[in-house]
Amino acid sequence: MDKSEIIDFIHIPLLQQICEAYLNTKSSQNSNKLNVFTIASDLYYRENFHSDIISAFLDPSYNHNMGPTCLYAFIEMLNNFFGNKICINKKDYREASVKRESNRIDILIQSESNKAKHCIIIENKMNNAVDMKRQIPRYFDLMVKQGFIVDAIVYIPLEDSKTPNQSSWTKTDKTNVNPRLVILPAYSEVNSPNLVEDWIQKCILLTKNIDCISIFSQYAELIKKLNHDIMGSVMLEKLYNELIQFEKPQSVQTLSEMLGKIPEHMANRLLNHYKNRIGDFYNIWKYKSNYFVLDFTTENHNIAIDVIASLKGYHISVFCRNGNIKELVERKPIKMLDKFNLKDDDRYHNEDFGFQDEQKVIDWIEDFYKEMKK
Questions:
Q1: Which of 26, 63, 150, 195 has the highest CB neighbour count under 10 A?
Q2: pLDDT tens-digit profile of 260-274?
Q3: Could you tell me which of 181, 180, 205, 183 has the C-alpha nearest to residue 194?
Q4: pLDDT in tens, 169-180
């Protein structure tokens, strides 16, 4: 694999964007957050779980004591964000009922007020299930045959890259469904609308019921967690699709092997930089392939500087091999304590630098060495 091949690989389309999106997803994850739903069971991975919660709050007759507040907030959200294609009159839903799995429709909001029959079809895809053949058009046809006006068809994926599969739809299906179809992802950090920010959080502001607020808040956090989990997979899928189009697939394996050796190379660079400093350091060596060590003596104390290299960057650990480094440093000027923060721990001090910060690592080592030798 020559230099040109490496450059071609690194600059494949969307690689930088994919990597940045994946990194943002990982940094946003907070799987350790306390959540009653994850404590109770693993049912939150199932589609029915989410449909049950959403339908409960949309249902004016449910015992949340909010009446039609959440339903009207849902309708207002649809009108505000999708007003270019749908316009739902809240008066048509004064006597609304909400059904689960009516004719296999996940959530059906229907009303027969004002001498007309209106409905909103909600298809929940938060478990990332595939679309069945003509699934949404079949629901539309069914409700029309029952005399309903279908005001909107709301498709709810977990994240915004998933859209309905229309490969089995007829031309008539597309004509009937698409003008009423809206994609409402459960959550998105970059796009609006989404279920969490534009409905759930609004419902929290519309109630003083502490139970409802707690459930909404916990549920919103659960959706965010699931969204972050799946977004990592989405980014990997995008990267995979880019890699399989690469003209020289063996280069992918070669570059992967080379990346695995980068931490060792980083440690070797530091070793080469300090190899002629044996007069200052009585030991200059590598403990492991990516583990660079410097030892020096001051006031009869043996000080060790360990630098661990990885693709994340550099981690420096400083300690005294034959004593307490804090006791030694406490006799130094206060400015040194502040500069190196060595008072935080009786034995160790840890410092982290980024992948591109080799010079900063060297500068830190030099400053620390000079201060300790004064």
A1: 195
A2: 889 999 999 999 999
A3: 183
A4: 999 999 999 999
Instruction: Pick the closest to residue 160 from 187, 135, 199 (CA basis).
Output: 187
Q: How far is CA 43 from CA 11, 37, 38, in A?
A: 42, 8, 8
Dihedral sign computed on CA atoms, order 136, 142, 143, 149: positive
Q: Is 219 exposed, middle or buried (0-12, 13-18, 19+ CB in 10 A)?
A: buried
* Rg of the Cα atoms in the chain: 30
297: closest CA among 372, 233, 243? Answer: 372
The pTM for the full model equals 0.62
For 343-372, the pLDDT digits (tens) are 445 556 778 899 999 999 999 999 889 888
Asked if 253 and 10 touch (Cβ cutoff 8 Å), the reply is: no
Taken as a whole, the chain contains a residue count of 374
